């Protein structure tokens, strides 16, 4: 999978918006202002940072050497996944979808709390 492939997939999500973070040389993808993916290169390799539950993040890191704690985001919930590593494309898409769904749920909770 390439950075372009994953970025294109994330941008198909309803409400997805992208923003370039120049300091980090990364493209952030957000849902209504809530980050759900960040595509970038790590040590010259294509990678994406995605949010998950802490339990899933721990499990993925134990099972795959190509899944690491995020360098720039909360390490408990954000993992950096190499796109050219051991995870199948279908697994990467599923993780991106789960991260997107967390952003949607967070926005809905934020709106309910503000009412």
TrEMBL record:
<dbReference type="GO" id="GO:0003677">
    <property type="term" value="F:DNA binding"/>
</dbReference>
<dbReference type="InterPro" id="IPR007351">
    <property type="entry name" value="YjbR"/>
</dbReference>
<protein>
    <submittedName>
        <fullName>MmcQ/YjbR family DNA-binding protein</fullName>
    </submittedName>
</protein>
<dbReference type="InterPro" id="IPR058532">
    <property type="entry name" value="YjbR/MT2646/Rv2570-like"/>
</dbReference>
<dbReference type="InterPro" id="IPR038056">
    <property type="entry name" value="YjbR-like_sf"/>
</dbReference>
<dbReference type="Pfam" id="PF04237">
    <property type="entry name" value="YjbR"/>
</dbReference>
<keyword id="KW-0238">DNA-binding</keyword>
């Amino acid at each position: 999978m390439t950075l372009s492939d994953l970025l294109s997939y994330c941008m198909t999500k309803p409400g997805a918006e992208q923003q370039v973070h120049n300091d980090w040389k990364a493209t952030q993808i957000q849902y209504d202002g809530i980050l759900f993916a960040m595509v970038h290169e790590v040590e010259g390799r294509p990678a994406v940072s995605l949010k998950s539950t802490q339990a899933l993040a721990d499990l993925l890191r134990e099972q795959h050497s190509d899944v690491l704690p995020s360098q720039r985001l909360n390490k408990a919930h954000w993992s950096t996944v190499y796109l050219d590593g051991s995870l199948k494309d279908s697994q990467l898409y599923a993780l991106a979808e789960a991260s997107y769904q967390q952003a949607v749920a967070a926005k809905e909770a934020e709106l309910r709390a503000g009412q």
